[in-house]
Amino acid sequence: MNKWGKLSLGMLLAVGLMTGCGNNNDNAASTDTNAGNTGTTAKTLTLGTSADFPPYEFHKVIDGKDTIVGFDIDIAKDIAADMGAELVIKDLAFDSLLNELSSGRVDMVISGLSPTEERKKAVDLSDIYYKAEQAVVVREADKDKFATMDSLKGAKIGVQTGSIQEDIAKGIEGAQLTSLGKISEIVLQLNSNRVDASIMEGPVAKSFVKNVKGLVITDAKPEVEDDGYVIGVKKGNTELLNQVNTTLTRLNSEGKIEEYVAAASELAESE
Ligand code: ARG
Predict the structure, then answer these.
(1) Which residue CA neighbors atom 7 of ligand 1 most closely?
(2) pLDDT tens, per residue, the chain with 271 residues
(3) To bridge 268 with a disulfide, which of 34, 40, 55, 208 should be the other Cys (CB 3.0-4.6 Å)?
(4) Is 126 in the same domain as 137?
């Protein structure tokens, strides 16, 4: 626990509300978004992300200013820099991201996105840049009760709308689903006994459990086929896809991605 102790429910609610109305926030100085431009001639590169997902992408007050940070954002900055473009960040609902991409309102999506078959049909996906496991988060008192996937049968489960976790939960017999737009909202539902469990990415679970009192990760291990995260671009935007993969190859060979993950995890857990 850091010196400030854990976040209270009230603080979490405040953060949830702040970020909840943050849709369409452009996190860059530029007003000329120029979305839809491709390749190395673009002046701006517009990223679509759902910044409710520490340590991947989240809001943090830095030098008194609300800022979107995280290891996905670090990767996005490198892609923009390699293209000589200015990065513009749009904080959007997770389940709207691929539509925004297809309609050209954003140029790329980096948002802890898992490469499902359905998504492969809708947009073009990059190489995998990182892998993580899934985790089940519950209230402390229920840690042993929900220690296996079987024990989740019939449970009230909170998941993010449009996520692979929603699909995992749908596959659990008798589970009663609450699908919500933001992970922070799911955490509130858990804290207020309205859902009993949530499925989320391991690193995200770790970050919430560190910062929110009374929540723990259980021994239950959700299995997914599509492990690993990818970057989405509009179907047919080969030029940008090649640029994205080139930057990912560079970052991997320089050991940068592990470095970004470690730094973002630390940032997510600090006050
Ligand atoms: N990996 C999961 C998926 O692709 C969840 C991603 C959620 N991302 C976020 N930024 N909230 O469905």
Answers:
(1) 112
(2) 343 445 554 455 444 444 433 344 444 434 344 444 454 455 899 999 999 999 999 999 999 999 999 999 999 999 999 999 999 999 999 999 999 999 999 999 999 999 999 999 999 999 999 999 999 999 999 999 999 999 999 999 999 999 999 999 999 999 999 999 999 999 999 999 999 999 999 999 999 999 999 999 999 999 888 779 999 999 999 999 999 999 999 999 999 999 999 999 999 988 7
(3) 55
(4) no
* Residue that is written with structure tokens 């089940």 in the block: 136
Beta bridge partners of 48: 90, 109
Q: Are residues 196 and 76 in the same domain?
A: no
Q: Are residues 45 and 176 in the same domain?
A: no
CB-CB contact of 170 with 178 (8 Å) = no
Ligand 1 atom at minimum distance from 111 CA: 10
Closest-lying ligand 1 atom to the alpha carbon of residue 183: 11
Residue type, 165: Q
Where does ligand 1 bind, in terms of residues with CB under 6 Å? 50, 52-53, 56-57, 94, 111-114, 160, 163-164, 201
Mutate-to-test residue for ligand 1 from 160, 198, 204, 208, highest number of ligand atoms within 8 A of CB: 160
Q: What is the CATH number of the domain that holds 164?
A: 3.40.190.10
Q: Are residues 89 and 33 in the same domain?
A: yes
CB contact at 8 A, 108 and 147: no
172 falls within a domain? yes
177 Cα to the center of ligand 1, angstroms: 17
When divided into structural domains, the chain yields a total of 2
In a domain, 94, yes or no: yes
Find the 164 Cα to ligand 1 centroid distance in Å: 7
* Nearest ligand 1 atom, CA 114: 4
User: Which ranges of the chain does DSSP label H, i.e. alpha helix?
Assistant: 9-20, 71-83, 97-102, 117-122, 164-170, 183-191, 202-211, 238-253, 256-269
Residue 49 to residue 87: CA distance in whole angstroms: 12
Same domain, 156 and 194: yes
